[in-house]
Amino acid sequence: MKLQVAVFFGGKSTEHEISVISAIQAIGYLDREKYDVYPVYITKNNEMYTGKDLDKIESYKDIPALLKKSSKVCLKIYENKTVLEKTEGLFNKTVAAIDVAFPIVHGTNVEDGTIQGFLRMYNLPVVGCDLTSSAVGMDKYVMKAVLAYNNIPVLDCERITADRFSESPDVIMEVLEDRFGYPMIVKPVNLGSSIGISKATDRDSLEEALELGFRFAEKVLVERAIEHLKEINCAVLGDYTDAVASVCEQPLNGHEILSYKDKYMSGGAKTGGESGGSKGMASLSRKIPADISDELTTKIQEIAVDAFVCLGCSGVSRIDFMIDMDTNELYLNEINTIPGSLSFYLWEPVGTPYTKLLDKMIQIALNKEKRESNLTYSFETNVLQNANIGGCKGSKLN
Q1: Contact 38/28 with Cβ under 8 angstroms?
Q2: For residues 55 and 35, is the Cβ–Cβ distance under 8 A?
Q3: How many whole angstroms separate alpha carbon 273 and alpha carbon 278?
Q4: pLDDT tens string 163-192
Q5: Dist. CA 311–CA 103, nearest whole Å
Q6: How remote is the C-alpha of 306 from its chain's centroid?
Q7: Torsional class of 273: left (φ above 0), alpha (ψ -120 to 50), beta (otherwise)
């Protein structure tokens, strides 16, 4: 009997469109002999739709037209089954009873634990990181704090809030100059895809960088910029019980900061492949394996797994590293709990094609659900039967 898999994507996020690309790509590689797949598109207004054309990238050229021929849906629980249900018309109609939820979302309001918590409220096994690891992984400051506590190398940083900056911008900038000097990197604390990130080389550009960051988030992270930088990425698959690292990659870009355009618009809009969708992150220029020594490769892979386990991750995450070429120091830059294209291109070189990778991710989620089913979440006794709250207006009924 096939598993009923609902793939959730989109959402109220600056990375909405990238989520669509990643999800359609994955949907095309899910094994239809094992799974019945239901694409669930979440609009920027957080409404959910399903329909036969939601897995076609060309349909998103006209989203209003796409939604007109799709069905608005919601999740409901009936007799211990979680169902996807149409909400339009006089009578609600069940689309399918869902066995597992597969969120392929990027950015704030979705990837940050929001959708994971929502789906768990409906008793669904969720592929990938849980609420806590998703939230920690999205908040770059909290992530750094947890990793530093566990002796994983990260750059020192300063977190600045929008209100603190607006009250005394000159004081804040002087503090940053004293601590880091120029150049500095300024980034929103909880966004991905290089949105809102910029480099400051003097007081004027620092002010501009901070103002740009605050356009996208209430908090920004500031750290020193590594002037002679080599970036290395490594993905990890598994959970805290068993995790393995992929091959390492070296992104190749013509700019000092790998931009949103570098990641998704340099050939990323092309269609093709088995999924018939955009190539997304898979189209980025990169060197696989990375041009580094075997010793450094092993070190990066070990740190990547340690960080993945330390943060409580599950499924596939991509961990991005920075090498300071002047000092040969290695730093973990950030973790992507739901990476673009699910980083499938890092697993193919080690004998794990995309379809098999997706199978493993679903199985990890089901195994986790099985383990958690043995935990106690409630007690048989009902303390409310004998509860008496004095002084409450609603404590006595006439």
Answers
A1: no
A2: no
A3: 8
A4: 999 999 999 999 999 999 999 999 999 876
A5: 19
A6: 19
A7: left
